[in-house]
Prior knowledge:
The protein is an all-beta fold.
Amino acid sequence: MSNGPGLFSDIGKKAKDVLTRDYISDQKFSVSAASDTGVVLTSTAVKKGGLSAGDVAAQYKYKNTLVDVKLDTESNIATTLTISEIVPSTKTIIGFKLPDYNSGKLEVQYFHRHATFTSAVSSNKEKHVVDLSATLGTPTFAFGAEAGYESALGKLTKYTAGISVTRPDSCASVLLGDKGDSIKASYVHHLDEIKRSAAVAEISRKFSTNENTFTVGGVYAVDHLTVLKAKLNNHGKLFALLQHEVIPKSLLTIASEFDTKALDITPKIGLSLALKP
């Protein structure tokens, strides 16, 4: 794919990853195994509250085709087929679920040096949804928009616009979403050359309720095996996590959530162990 401005979904993604990725509140254990034929099998067990669930996933890659299949405890099978370069500079994603034969999604992404376009059609028994997005610019400066149309309602159900500026050591973005009812601005500053440590600030406002949320956070690489992350918002919610690579590619994550305005409430603790070949 060309080195262009990226997809519209990439706007604000760097800040979102630092502030949300790997923050867990349940117990999760997963084991992966790879075969000589290129198939990767992953079994996952999750315990949330008093409920337990699990799934089995398989992934197979052959040349420019990637197949993902997931089976959950309710015998639902979700399949995603990703094919690159059917047409030059494109990626096609096909998704469907079984035994729900009436559901499915088709997405086509087009990458150009100065633009990217995405069109997606999803459907089930009750409705058909069409999503379109476009981004113009360069890897340094990009702006774009997306819109969604639902046939059952006969109108646009979402439209969002965004802009981002990316430099070697920082990235700033602004997103106007919820059909113009909310705005979110974020800034990420990398603290090292390999971009494993960073500081983040994000502010969002919902106009209909006059609600503001301000969040600061960061990630710090203690060494090549251990990472610390934390974030705090103006509502008094403090989140922290420690992630350690116990063996190559296998991660142990311990996360916690505190309410600094109600210290008598027991903090939430999350634990995840992912073993990979």
